[in-house]
């Protein structure tokens, strides 16, 4: 019997989540195992890509058909997809999952995997729509009135910008005779601006991402982990691919990234709600991911793992209001997750976030690298706000008869272990004496960030210093319009 070709393996892997979701609808008791199998398969594909064991490009249905590129850029995003979705499955292993959650999770997982390797505009449109619709249904899973409005708002914004994206794809084909991303890079300003409006909104960047904080904060914890951990990356990967071949986008994308990082950071520094703080931080960190295509994958991996862990433990927070945390001790599973995950995002060694941030600094010009250090100080000040609650010493809080959940969730343990082990792997692979001053710099950034947090603490209590609400529906539409108009003017 001849060996199975790499092309056949790739096609089978891409179809697996959708076939598993169909089978789970027929045999619900198998849903958890099927979802876990899909995650393991994606993790194996990511490892095979890293080892060079799979074809770097795959063409289907002729020159105008589907083009897939499972390359080095896609590998860290596929690993992120596998680990975050797998962690969500493990986190809810002993709990009854609401409605068709696992079925939708598999569809989302398959859509994300396809979006990470697709390099033609129509395939990207289809996969991003699959991701958007499955995310919409997952937000709706609790079926409350508030989740209904947030899900509808998410769907309406997503469908609107993807309609603009589709128009841009049609214009690219009329001008260039191709749907490849390389054709989009040489298309006119109007076509490229329409494509970018869709991708920037899906990625949750700058004013196009104002939908993100409220949606991610109000969704159920496991859905928030998926949204902030990996769903926003579906719009980032095409942006990074386009930036690598389009000089116009390569010039404008860092500006959008810095603006997004600053906007999210400013609101996170003064946000009183713990989940909204995490959501604003996602908007900020995704801005850093797009600063350099060469380093964006590892940075997205480090951020996504840590942010998914933080949202998974959000259901065990002592409350949403950070002002009440100081006198409410946290169980070890929550306290340890807060510290490890947030320190990784800040960039403290030996966690994965440190090596991701170091790689990003190396890929940036000196002025932007210094700006990244200033933003890192602000990030440390944001996450220092989560370190105010003490560790609970007793096994149970006073008056409690049983712990509602295990101290350490299996899914959270998987994510934290990945942050540590992948960090160790990066240290082994890229060790150099330059990492020593980088570690010292990280310690200084952390100390200055904690000082900034303490300096800002009294200001957060002043009512007139509250930042404006930019998350109303007119604000979302206006923000997208401003970004689209700005892109059209800049690219011209």
Description:
It is built from 20 helices and 2 strands. With 492 residues, the chain is mainly α. Helix 14 (293-312) packs antiparallel against helix 15 (332-346). The longest helix is centred in the first third of the chain and has 32 residues, at 145-176. It is globular. It is a multi-pass membrane protein. It is found in: Cell membrane; Membrane. It holds the Pfam family Proton_antipo_M.
Shape: globular
Q: Order of strands side by side in the largest beta sheet?
A: 1-2
Termini separation comes to: 57 Å
Rg, rounded, reads 22 Å
User: How many strands?
Assistant: 2
Question: Could you give the order of the helices and strands?
Answer: HHEEHHHHHHHHHHHHHHHHHH
**What count of structural domains?**
1
Please work out how many helical segments DSSP would assign: 20
> Main sheet, how many strands, which sense, barrel?
2 strands, antiparallel
Mean pLDDT score: 90
Query: Runs with pLDDT <50, length 5+?
Result: none
- Beta-strand content estimate: under 5%
Strand-pairing-aware structural class: mainly alpha
User: Helical proportion?
Assistant: over 70%
Please summarize what this structure is.
This protein is mainly α and 492 residues long.
């Amino acid at each position: 019997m001849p060996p199975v070709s790499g092309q056949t393996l790739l096609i089978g892997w891409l179809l697996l989540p959708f076939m598993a979701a169909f089978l789970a609808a027929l045999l619900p008791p198998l849903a958890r195992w099927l979802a876990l199998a899909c995650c393991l398969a994606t993790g194996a594909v990511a490892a095979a890509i890293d080892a060079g064991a799979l074809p770097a490009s795959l063409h289907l249905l002729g020159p105008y058909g589907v083009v897939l590129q499972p390359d080095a850029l896609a590998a860290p995003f596929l690993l992120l997809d596998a680990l975050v979705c797998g962690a969500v499955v493990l986190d809810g292993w002993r709990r009854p999952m609401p409605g068709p959650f696992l079925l939708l999770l598999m569809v989302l997982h398959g859509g994300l995997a396809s979006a990470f390797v697709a390099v033609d505009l129509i395939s990207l449109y289809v996969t991003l729509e699959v991701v958007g619709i499955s995310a919409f249904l997952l937000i709706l899973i609790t079926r409350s009135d508030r989740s209904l409005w947030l899900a509808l708002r998410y769907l309406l914004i997503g469908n609107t910008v993807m309609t603009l994206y589709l128009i841009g794809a049609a214009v690219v084909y009329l001008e260039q005779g191709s749907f490849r991303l390389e054709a989009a890079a040489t298309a006119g300003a109007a076509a490229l601006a329409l494509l970018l409006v869709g991708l920037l909104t899906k990625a949750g960047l700058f004013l196009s991402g104002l939908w993100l904080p409220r949606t991610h904060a109000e969704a159920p914890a496991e859905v928030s982990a998926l949204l902030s951990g990996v769903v926003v990356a579906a719009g980032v990967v095409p942006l990074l691919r386009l930036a690598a071949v389009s000089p116009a986008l390569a010039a404008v994308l860092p500006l959008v990234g810095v603006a997004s990082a600053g906007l999210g950071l400013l609101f996170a520094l003064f946000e009183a709600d713990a989940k909204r703080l995490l959501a604003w931080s996602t908007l900020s960190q995704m801005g850093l991911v797009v600063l350099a295509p060469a380093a964006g994958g590892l940075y997205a991996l480090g951020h996504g793992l840590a942010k998914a862990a933080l949202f998974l433990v959000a259901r065990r927070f002592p409350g949403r209001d950070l002002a009440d945390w100081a006198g409410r001790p946290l169980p070890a599973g929550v306290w340890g997750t807060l510290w490890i995950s947030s320190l990784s995002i800040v960039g403290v060694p030996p966690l994965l976030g440190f090596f991701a941030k170091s790689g990003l600094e190396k890929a940036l010009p000196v002025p932007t690298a210094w700006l990244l250090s200033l933003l890192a100080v602000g990030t440390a000040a944001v996450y220092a706000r989560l370190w105010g609650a003490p560790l609970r010493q007793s096994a149970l809080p006073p008056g409690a008869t049983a712990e509602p959940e295990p101290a350490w969730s299996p899914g959270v343990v998987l994510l934290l272990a990945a942050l540590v082990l992948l960090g160790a792997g990066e240290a082994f692979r890229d060790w150099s004496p330059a990492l020593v001053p980088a570690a010292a710099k990280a310690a200084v950034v952390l100390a200055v960030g904690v000082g900034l947090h303490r300096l800002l603490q009294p200001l957060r209590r002043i009512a007139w210093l509250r930042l404006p609400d930019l998350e109303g529906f007119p604000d979302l539409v206006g923000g997208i319009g401003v970004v689209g108009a700005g892109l059209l003017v800049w690219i011209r």
